[in-house]
């Protein structure tokens, strides 16, 4: 399981549990909250009625007053009130009045007049001077049939002469509770989904950033030429910078160690030849032999100079992770310049050159590096082409790439050597004299091709060898 998925799983679990706890707690608080608000309203109503009914209860004329008719008319009213999208089409309050002994004097429902209600908590507690309220089921088997009763004392100065109770069925509050719960549920689900989307995006971004750093580290470990990933400022950006600095330090150390070993090995042969020739020159010898030893010293010195120059060029390319500049270079013109510079050698060797390069082709990259790479390929081809042999240069565009093909007539390259031709310091003997080159030319071309995002391939073809340099077309 990837790090991003694990982070999202932990985030999902945390958000899910937190959301469930909050939603469950709030949903459970809606019902008692609505009922508490309703009870507060019933308290105000009961106390208002207690003041209105005081004189009639004190005088004993309650049954002969207009209140029974008013309550009956109140029960028939149809408000048709639109309360936040819910229509209230009837009144739901039940009002009853008892005397100081708990006997019902007046009941808006008309079913309890004369009954003893002194045992009910709303009346019983109020007659004792306490706050009286109760909740009673109309149907004992139906929990939704409960009715809330709130009572208030009817006072004659400080004496309780009666009780007025106001009742409201809890079932009439249920539509408002259900609506609030539905809205809260949708809002909660929306917030959870939004939170999960944010968490998914955060996990994706973090996983993607860490994935880039991982791929970069793996590519560096594999010896590939890659640029460090682009990161925003912060810890990840600092980590990318630290990885790049570590890569530079490690590559620099390994690079120096590797080059010291290989360079020491390559310098042994020419230095030994120069030293041996110099020691022999101290003794008496024929003039022609002296000239031969002097010629050997000059050749080995030239070889050392060529080795050092190519090593410098190769080191510059190998240590770079990208191009410093990119310009459009006419390919035909560049190849013509390189051939012109080698015209004396071509004429002396009697080589035939065939040309098939489109004038419109453009290479995009660093002119110096591409010039050096193509020059190395031409020199290498001339070295292995026999007297009077054929060179064929072709180039064309193919599916977003420019392919430069250089064919030279020559003996086939041994199979064991084909895979090693681009290795540093690996070289085959030249047909003309059996001497080997520095073994850095093709390695340099390979590095330049990879730096430009291309590749170099070498293969045996009919009656010769073909080198193919593939570079991006733009």
Structure description:
The chain has 474 residues and is of the alpha+beta class. The chain folds into 3 domains: 3-178, Beta-Lactamase, CATH 3.30.450.20; 225-321, Signal transduction histidine kinase, dimerisation/phosphotransfer (DHp) domain (Helix Hairpins), CATH 1.10.287; 327-472, 2-Layer Sandwich (Heat Shock Protein 90), CATH 3.30.565. 53% of the residues lie in helices and 19% in strands. The chain has 11 helices and 14 strands. Strands 4-3-7-6-5 form a 5-stranded antiparallel β-sheet. Helix 4 (174-221) packs parallel to helix 5 (235-281), helix 7 packs across helix 9 and helix 9 runs antiparallel to helix 11 (441-451). The longest helix has 57 residues, at 3-59. The radius of gyration is 50 Å and the shape is rod-shaped. The two termini are 39 Å apart. Mean pLDDT is 79; it is low at 252-256.
